[in-house]
Amino acid sequence: MKYASKKMGEKFEKQYKAQQQYKRNAPQYKEGETVIDKKPHSSNSNSSNKVGEYIEFEEIE
User: Where is region (Disordered) located (predicted)?
Assistant: First the structure.
């Protein structure tokens, strides 16, 4: 029982240290600040990346 509690304590300590390290390395933002992590599309493509295709159809009655 003593061994299991020691191993669990080591596991929790390792997780805590990893979380603290992440918080130190994470970028700091002010409260209420909006951050968008997305690159804008390049304007050089000029609709060369069309999605799907246009299909003409007629309704038959």
Answer: 1-61
